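Reopening this one. Same input as before:
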Amino acid sequence: MVGRLLLLLAVLTTRQLAGAAAASSSSSKVVTRLPGFQGRLPFHLETGYVEVDEDNGTELFYYFIESEAGTEDAPFLLWLTGGDHCTVFSGLAFEIGPVKFVVEPYSGTTPRLEINPHSWTKVANILFVDTPVGAGFSFSRRPQGYHVGEVSTSLQLHEFLIKWIGDHPKFLSSPLYIGGDSYAGKIVPFITQKISEGNEVGRRPLLNLKGYLVGNPATGERIDESSKVPFAHGFGIISDQLYETILGHCQGQDYKNPTSVLCAKALGTFHSLLSEVMLAHILREKCVFSSAGPHAETGDSAASASRKILNEEEAVIVTGKRVKHPPPRVSLGCYSYTAYLSYFWANDALTRDALGIKDGTVDEWVRCHSGDLPYAVDIGSSIRYHRNVTANGYRALVYIMVLSAERLNLAGICIGVGSGDHDAVVPHLGTQAWVRSLGFPIVDQWRAWHLDDQSAGFTISYSNNMTFATVKGAGHTAPQYERCYAMFSRWILDQPL
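Same output, byte for byte:
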């Protein structure tokens, strides 16, 4: 890992001295065609860069898709993805964007794309940003620019929004929402608070901030980890005896770093049993994650090992681009197969040309950096920011996937880190617990919400404008999952679920 980072920094320094990357504070391009998609795009796509750190030449890459509703008052959503160093293209192509990959065996040619009939862009303008720097096509001309963390990245995103909307004044009055899933769900409320504070002190342009939404979000709190134990017990993964032992010996301890020998032993047994199932969905067969992120579950060990044994001689040639670190081979029936395809699509020379990627900036696109870039975890807990922002009157939607959920932006399922009732990564028990801990009165009791006269999930609303919702079902991929779109469109348009 250290070796790859040093190599990356050396290459970047060489390019900086050689002047390989053009110096530009911002740039954009209207994209009318994409490799793998037949014909012209039936939606407005703009890509480009915004400089957020002039000293280091840090530029964040974005994809902007204008609302297909065609209305002037359509909501505006800034969307972030999990990771922490995963490309936002995962959110665009696997979750909420207007295109998705055709699931078919990779043949060495550009993977094909098709329309997602349940894209969130049908009701909202969505700005997808590769963040933090180093994710996707975002880059820095100086090695120091890659030394960022949760706080500095959030401030860069605020700077990004100020500049981007300043360059696109037609969206200045659009209702603004900040959204994200998985690990990004941890920093979304923090960014929202910073934007609110910027408006209060008169930073211009004033952003028309209305609220935020997070899908199965991590919080940084112990509850994310400790809730796995009652979850596993409830599903019969661990025995009554082990459950009682953990409760008896681990009370008040950090489950990731237990101080008691007896607690550590019990948790070791717990994790061994939990590793027998797919954490993202305990009913599914375990599957290798394609280009998994640094917070990967046990299934990622195989992915890591697979990548380590690949050397320069085994690199794959993709339409004139050398893929130096191919992702683990994934079987066609695996839910992460589309993530596997994305690797070859994004490294295609035709794709880079279509997207307007700057030469000499990102040598090789990877879906997620596996911990090989620095990133400071300096937001201890996001819960206080949830409380602060909603107490100031901003709307909030916290939702979880029920029956099937995912994390880290892997291909498939409706947005998220996994708090569904078959997901063991950040179980729904923990999510509900911290929402209740905010202490706001209930204004609309727990009830079902419906789609086509059937229960689509359950929801509860609080006096601080926070809505908690579950999305029921076992959809394989988010683009095929209508309930997710129905939940979002109703909430973002301020309609009852």
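So the earlier flakiness isn't reproducible anymore. For the record, The chain has 14 helices and 18 strands.
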